[in-house]
Write a structure and sequence with these properties.
Nuclear Transport Factor 2, Chain: A, globular, 5-stranded antiparallel β-sheet, 12 strands, mainly beta
Amino acid sequence: NWSLVEVISSLETGEATDHLVLSLTTPEGDKATAFVEVGMDQETNESEILTAFTQSELGITVVPITPSGLVDTGDGGLVSPILGSVELNPVKPDSPLAKRLAGFLLDQEPATKAGLKLKRIVAVTQAKTADSSSYFVELLVTTEAGATVLIQAHVNELEESQLGLISFQMVKGG
């Protein structure tokens, strides 16, 4: 029973899919960030959700989605005939990659303006497609005044390991 608070970012990939980052809340006040991949059903020409997941300290929660068109693989299995699906991989918070992503985010203008310092890397998830990788990153940081803030960001990996910022949000009292 979630309701939409805001669309944090929307990335039109130029492919058959688009990526959304949504902020959600329940009537009880529970909050989550959801990462959604939306594609087009070729037969009906309607949008459909291909992948959706939330990320927290407990790890990745993949939102179960019933694929619209299942195809029998001939060996008793069923697969969705959607091209360009996303593979989700948790990244260990103490890994060099997670530290590199955290450093990249803390060097961005919103973070440098606020004088943010890293307190803890909460969670990092890699979303990998056939031809690109992006990362959903959550960091706990402190401001110069000592307040704790949660950063939620979506970073893509460009050619030659260059990083690009897709979305950046700071939530007070993380």
